[in-house]
Design a protein that fits this description.
Number of strands: 7
Structural class: alpha/beta
Number of domains: 1
Strand order of the largest sheet: 3-2-4-1-5-6-7
CATH superfamily: P-loop containing nucleotide triphosphate hydrolases
Length: 219
């Protein structure tokens, strides 16, 4: 009995995701769904990105958390629009939540919408939120075998951010091993090694955002 229920839930989600995608595409807004374990650095990456690219793009963030608006307040401090979604224990955002959040954003002139999903490497991957691309984050404070242990995310993502490389001298993490696992799953995966603290590697990430935004605008 569980299989039809799961299928129905995902099918309903897909219909809502199509509505999200249509609303954003009408305005040529690039939507990126950031997925990672808790503490991998999604919010820190957004803070740097929003500040550093403020002169180039108009950006907004939909923040997903079980409780609190801590991350939304951090994002709003950069000057970007931020909408908080609290799932009250739910392990992921879905397209209905995102669709509702769009009503609380000024979409006019918006270039990029970031969806910061709930910290989880499993459930958020299953639910299309109407994004153009999923972005996987993996910090070097985690295991370098995460792509092998949680393959679906790395298979579906268009980009992988290997974050907190400033910690490499202090942790047992093999960048090449993590990259090899991920690109074996997805040969087209763009991989960025960076540190939000030091700024190392951020320019490559920004260049990818510019390319993605240009492609969206031209589509």
């Amino acid at each position: 009995m569980q299989i039809p229920v799961v299928r129905n839930v995902l099918e309903a989600n897909e219909k809502m995701a199509a509505q999200v995608r249509r609303r954003l595409s009408e305005r040529s807004i690039l939507a990126l769904n950031l997925i990672s374990s808790p503490g991998a650095g999604k919010t820190a990456l957004l803070e740097r990105t929003l500040r550093d690219l403020a002169g180039e793009f108009r950006m907004a963030v939909i923040e997903g958390d079980l409780q609190t608006d801590n991350d939304a307040r951090r994002v709003a401090a950069t000057g970007a629009q931020a909408v908080q979604i609290n799932t009250d224990g739910g392990c992921h955002l879905d397209s209905n939540m995102v669709l509702s959040a769009l009503d609380n954003l000024d979409l006019a002139g918006l270039d990029i919408l970031f969806i910061e999903n709930v910290g989880n490497l499993v459930c958020p991957v299953e639910f299309d939120c109407g994004e153009d691309a999923k972005v996987a984050l993996l910090s070097v404070a985690e295991g370098d075998d995460k792509p092998e242990k949680y393959p679906l995310l790395f298979n579906l993502a268009k980009a992988l951010v290997l974050n907190k490389i400033d910690l490499l001298p202090h942790v047992d993490f093999d960048l090449e091993r993590a990259r090899a696992f991920a690109t074996r799953l997805n040969k087209d995966l763009a991989v960025f090694e960076l540190s939000c603290r030091s700024g190392a590697g951020l320019e490559s990430w920004y260049a990818w955002l510019r390319e993605m935004r240009a492609a969206k605008k031209a589509s």
